[in-house]
Amino acid sequence: MAASMTSSPHPDFQYLKQKFCQDLEQHLSKIKGKKDIFIDHELMKPLDRMAGAALLKNNGVDKIFKLVSNQMATDGLEQRVYLTRPRMDSVKVITEHVNADKGQNHKRKYHIIFVPRRLHLCEMMLEYEGIHGDVTISEIEMHLIPLDRDILSLELPFFFRTLFLDQDETWLHTVARSIIGVQSLANTIPNVYCIGRRARMTFDLVNMMLGDARPDPDYTKSEIGSLVIIDRDVDYVTPLCSQVTYEGLLDDSFGIKCGFIEFGPEVTGKDQTAKLLLTSDDQIFEEVRNRHFSNVLGYLSEKAKSLQQDFDKRHTLQSVGDMKNFVSKELRGLKQQKTNLAYHIGACEQILMKKNKDDFEEYLQTEHSFLEGSSLRENITFVEELVQKQHSMIPTLKLFSLLSLTQDGVSSRDYKSLKTQFLHSHGFEQMLTFNNLNKLGMLTEQDQSGQISTPIGKMPSGVNLRRSSYRNLCKKLNLVPKTEDIDLKRPTNMAYVFSGAYSPLSCKLIEQVLNKEGFSGLEDITKYLTGDVYSRVEVRDHSRPKSAAAGPKLSKTVMVYFLGGCTYSEITALRFLGRIKGYRFIISTTSIINGSTLLNSVVEKSR
Amino acid sequence: MGWGGVVDLDKFTVAAGPYGGPIGKILKLYTMGWGGVVDLDKFTVAAGPYGGPIGKILKLYTMGWGGVVDLYKFTVAAGPYGGPIGKMLKLYTMGWGGVYDLDKFTVAAGPYGGPIGKILKLYTMGWGGVYDLDKFTVAAGPYGGPIGKILKLYTMGWGGVYDLDKFTVAAGPYGGPIGKILKLYTIGWGGEVDLDKFTVAAGPYGGPIGKILKLYTMGWGGVYDLDKFTVAAGPYGGPIGKILKLYTIGWGGEVDLDKFTVAAGPYGGPIGKILKLYTMGWGGVVDLDKFTVAAGPYGGPIGKILKLYTMGWGGVVDLDKFTVAAGPYGGPIGKILKLYTMRRGSVVDLDKFTVAAGPYGGPIGKILKLYTVRRGGVVALDKFTVAAGPYACCGGPIGKILKLYTMRRGGVVALDKFTVAAGPYGGPIGKILKLYTMGWGGVVALDKFTVAAGPYGGPIVKILKLYTMGWGGVVDLDKFTVAAGPYGGPIALLRDDSKTARVQVSTKPIVTVYTAAGNQLGQMRWNSGNIIGFGWSHMEDLLFVQEDGVVLVYDMFLNFKRTFGMGQEAKDVKVTDCSIFNSYQGTGIAVLTSTFRIFIVNNIDDIRVRRMAEVPGLQSAPSSWVVINLDRQSRALVAKGSELFLIDHGGQYEAQTPQISVDVNEYTAMALSFNNRYLALFTDKGVIWIGSSDLQKVYCEFNTKSPSPPQQLSWCGGGAVVALFDQLMLVIGPDRDWIKYSFDSPVHLTQEEDGLRIIGNYQHEFLYRIADVTDKIFRIGSMEPGAMLYEASKEFYKGSQKADEYIRMIKDRLEHAVSQCIEAAGYEIESDKQKALLRAATFGKCFLTDYNPESFVNMCQMLRVLNQVRDHIIGIPLTYVQLEHLSMPVLIDRLVLRKLFYYAIRICQYLKIPDDEGASRILAHWACYKVCVCSWVLIDRLVLRKLFYYAIRICQYLKIPDDEGASRILAHWACYKVQKKDVDDETVAKDIQQKLGDTPGVSYSDIASQALECGRTDLAIRLLDFEPRAAQQVPLLMKMKKDSIALNKAIESGDTDLVYTVLLRLKESMPQGEFFMAIRNMPIAYSLFIQYCRHQNRKLMQDLYYQEDNFQEQANCNVINSFNEERLEDRQEELKLAQENYTKARNEFAARQTEEQMKLLKQQQALEEQFNQPFINLSLHQTIHRLTVNANHRVAESLRKEFKVPERRFWWLKIDALAEIGDWTELEKFSRTKKMPLGIEAFVTVCAKNGNMREAMKYVARVAPEQKVKCLVKVGEKKAAVDAAFENRSEEELNYVLSKCQPSDRQLVETIRGMKSQLAARR
Prior knowledge:
The structure holds two protein chains of two kinds. Chain A is built from 24 helices and 15 strands. Chain A is α/β, with parallel strands linked by helices. In chain A, the strands form three sheets. Chain A has a seven-stranded mixed sheet, with helices on both faces. A five-stranded parallel sheet of chain A has the order 2-1-3-4-5. In chain A, strands 10-11-12 form a three-stranded antiparallel sheet. Chain A is globular, with a radius of gyration of 26 Å. In chain B, 33% of the residues lie in helices and 16% in strands. Chain B is built from 35 helices and 41 strands. In chain B, strands 14-41-40-39 form a four-stranded antiparallel sheet, with no helix packed on it. Chain B has a four-stranded antiparallel sheet with strand order 15-16-17-18, with no helix packed on it. In chain B, helix 23 runs antiparallel to helix 24, helix 31 packs antiparallel against helix 32 (1265-1275) and helix 34 (1291-1300) packs antiparallel against helix 35. The longest helix of chain B is centred in the last third of the chain and has 27 residues, at 919-945. At the A-B interface, helix 4, helix 5, helix 7, helix 8 and helix 14 of A face helix 19, helix 21, helix 23, helix 25 and helix 26 of B. Chain B: Residues 1002-1309 form the Vps16 C-terminal domain. Chain B: Keywords: Coiled coil.
């Protein structure tokens, strides 16, 4: 299928970066003189992406520290700036700092800059601690961080837990603000589809913030045609699956943070680690990021050959002029490519090594049969064996959760036995983890009446996972392709992102919604979904035969907003979808996750 | 200065010097008494750069009886290298019936010592009015050649004979004479006047070319002969031409006409032509002369001289204009303009001389002279300015003289200013003196002078008229007590009984408030107690202090606002005096009681009455006292006789002894400057002492010789003290310099930050010190860049090329110049001056490429706003300085206070203040005002009088016109009064909503809070419904104690932060149980609160779960707590609680797990004791693993049994542990166990995992064939694996190995491929 990419560029999100830099400079320059800066550890990487240390240094920052808990900070300059998320833990650390100084009668000026906004709660905490008068408080709006041409992220890794587990909706405000921000850049988005309760809430919040007074938007100027907001709890299955695209594997194996990946000595082949920025600007990466892993190494070796050829060109250079041209123009680029290529090949080797470890194949096999719904018994045994073999906790838990999700709960007997063994292996405190997973609806126990047990207590949550929902959705949306031969090299089916075993539920849903321009006709699907759906369609797509020809043209650019994070596999799947359907997807997310980070965020770490 | 006499005062300064050093100075002083003769001569000789004398000035005065004043000034300017360039000589002789002789000779020396020229002058004046006057000026060119000559003759006889001559000679670049001016007047009424002039022009290379000879002979009633010979010498000594001129004027109308034109060219060719024509008739004598003398280097005409005389019968009018232009290449060099206007019966002379000479044509000097002489008084006024610059070639202006006369009938005011400025690098050399003379009969002369002083000259003050009072003719200030607010605030007048006749003592006083322009704002009859004093607060509220210490606060429209007292003690003993002052906190009030104690309130918005310390031994009222605010403390300075005491409210007093040179019995008046820094004291002997407010520094003492204290003693800004004695105002500067003004009606003085407002019956004036920057620009002869730019701009708009020259002079300081002009514009109050300065700034900006226009734009905006609010309709006479201090928002607030909403909004719009800070805020005020009007006006008037219809009409009238909405509110309001309460609220709310709509930034919450203040809570809530921003709604709702609504609104808003705000407040204000109940039905609030507790207060969270009977969560809390406990007992305790709670929650599984954990803990504790090794916090698995590693197999076994660990898992655990410690024999032994739950491949796995391939291979041998391939791969024996697979003929196994192959195993891959094809072939 010919890729019909529209040529119109994405809305320029670099503005977000400039705006933030301006704001930050303004705030810092207001604080005259030299100062130290403490940066919330969660803000380190985003700040690096958005501004960089040079900007700080240029604005009178002397030393940069990471703000971590239980940290003593009594040295340093008389002026101190804290750049932090408005979270209680961070505020607590700051109060400790200030109180420690006070204890030593050390007078200092403290400035707290909350990103993206100051919360009354935090100020209240400062007030309770009696240091509200000692600090000056301000805020800088930083919402979406452009990680790549088509990826925007809020970089709020704790978002999933606070919203879905703790039911704290504070950060929905930030999401809503970010949507308003995008709309102010790219004009009002005519069509909005909300999948899930929080998605709906977010959209309501957007409307409330804009107020009723806003004039009728001019949709002809809209650069983004549709916005799909989707709750993570609609689809837990996809993030729990092991990723097999190159980008996904990199994240699973090395962890990509804010677009940066760090390769250890085993990859670089040298003593020091290497930090690489993974964006579409890296030609080699751009070429392989969306590929199935089996298809990567071949390309890389080909690339190595052609690079060598390019290098060899220098031997054939005739004139001095050519030589000069080669050195000044190509050599640098080639060298950079060569370095990057070496890293990618090194990374591939590492991944291969891991894949070749005994259990991985079986692990993947089990995962796929869970998704397919086959050989249940054997798979449970496999999980059991993982527990017995003391396989590391998170992958085991991943598989365990996947079992529950695909079977709509684990049968009571298996549940109890697995859980007991798990607790024996990994400690009693994991009881609370199970409790959390239960609350989220990720790992539940089937009870005799055939209904899964509702979470105990009166916690109002969106968990009302209906029986057989996965199985039904799987059937209706054709998540597991029937044909065996999925071409992994030239994919024609979205399922290629999971080796042809499964198409991401979230992406399939998005495909359907965009296809039907709403949810009518999708009732038999939506009834199996967690939470509600909602749509507001202002402009119909002209290219559709049935739609009226009047009205503004609908932009083919679609923004997908994941509340609670999305995986690289989903991004790849959407890119694939865009390629075959002619959409241009912009993926916004609260953070980029994978199965491990997702589970890690809900594992109880009380010790 | 004598009374009713004439005072003249002149000063002359002449400076010249190439490198800026002043060379000479001319000082001239005239003192003329009535009936006396004073002569004053001064000679100044200025030396050239290398010491040679350059010129000499001779000056003679002769003054005759009858008020005749003569004034001469001579200025000699030196050329670039010491050569004099020009000289002007001027002589006046005016006598009524007197004879004066005046001779002057000036000889100027050339650069190399050779005499260059000679000046001969002869005066002969006969009795009966004949005067002769000759002046010769010979100027030498740079290389010794004479350049020009100026001749001037005046003859003024009694009965109207005037002679006036002007000669201008301009020199060319290399000494070549370029032009010549000859002028002769002969005007005689029945008399004869002869006038001859000769001009000799020199050739190009410096040789003297000509000579001028002039002879006058004038007889009485006789015949005059006049011969002139001009001989011009050629370049090489040959004579070039000759000029011959003959006049013959006979009595009774003879006219002679001669024309001679002799022009000499460089090689003998004629250079120019001179034409002269006289026509004089009896009873109408008209002379018309035109001279054109042009000489160019090659014979081309260079200039032209035109002269016209017109004399009418019965009046003599002379009009001469001379234009002599010469330039090296024909460019004009200078211009001379002369105008005479003579009236019969009054003598008016008006001369202007402009002499310009410069090697490259730049103007060197300018002379402006204006005479105004009126009958009944003789005023003579002369100004001469001669400037010479060594580098005059640069063409910059060197001096400027400005002089203005204003004379009133019946009084003579003479005002002279002279400024003489020296060359380009010279600092200003001159000084300006200003004198006022006020004549008899109460004549007040008030002029506007902008006089700028020299480098170290003192400041000069200026009085400016702000307004003609709107109350003109209605109000006589004599009958009122006056209080005016600072910063152009309104004026309150109190009809004072004590000032009028005591007939109507019983009537209550009337209070009237006017704007600063005298327009009435409000009036009322006072109906409370006796007013001791009143004044304005900084919020423009009017404060009245009553005898009983009660202070009543009114707004400027005299609507009552509130009242407060000055304490019980003050009430009991009566207040006798009060003082309203600006303290650091706002506005304060101090009162003096009849017991001579002072009570003070520092801030009328936060009333705390403080009692000041007692002044020791004070038995009678202090003669004067004042409240001083310094260092954030208010203290009172009290005068007790000759002693001064500084008292504070801390009970401290301090005797103060200012340094004063005279004896003091009593201080009868005190005045404190606006900024509280300076103090003026007035003693009983009339001495004014001026010093710092801490009495440490003395600036000066000044004896007024007035025994009685002034009516008012004030400060004009921080500069001068002003004492008002009846209608005489004395301005005293810090250097004891003083000025006296008198007024023809009573005035009131109000101190401002930068000046003093003088409120009179008809006028409102402003006295202020001229700002430095203004001074720099307008100072005569100022070389400041700003002054140059201003001059350039003026020239530019005149279309003169000089503009460019001026600009070029200040090229590198242009930015400074622009800033100066902008700054100076700010200090100007008159808009035409502002415009002129701003125009200069714009002009200057054109030459700057990167000048930041912000300050300019800002200044234009500010001035526009200032001019607008200064308009008499608004009547806020603010200056720029005051506005800077007051700030724009406050000004807008003040406009709002005056209900000038429209203006306020327009100003906001003009200044582009964002809507939510500006216009919307004002709209909100307007709405608040509406609410207030509803409650105040209507409740008062409608309800009390029950005249609803009229009341509505009145309300309509009171409203802003054309506002239907307003009347509707009132109509509904009236309905409400007769009907139900709730109708009203809704309507009012609705109406406001309709009016305001959803204008962005309108704060309904502000309006609501206003309503709340009026006690209309319901209306407030209703109004809040319109508020789109929950963040604004919620705090107000909380203020109204509508907590539940607030919480709902917060939740609706979706902003959890807001929810927290309410929640945390609720938590504080409510009993805990109630609070829990309140939030349990609000899931969002509930989960937020839990979230908060999780971080801040875990105990509270548990309490909450307990209240909820949420056992599951309680148990979870217990579990978490158990891990946080240090002591094992506590931990067990918590776990026990958890277990109980899990049971209650019917979560038996969890309960059992908890129980197991308790057991495990107990075991681990025992193990720790037994093995002295950490076990606690390990999982069961880890515990057993550790035991196995330590080879405590027995204990491990018992644990296995106790916790029912499945066989399979236990085995895995065990072999793993054994492999880990490398106990291969034990492992081997173990592998031989019968009934093994694991396959033998598990052993391979653990061995491979721990890196012992050899050991692993042992087990591989025992592995079942179908597992063998996998095991071999695990061990790393891929080759063997391939072989085994091939043996098994299993393609699947081959593929498995293939998938494990790495790029390095190319060989193997080939092999496998081969085998696969073999297998396929076999099939």
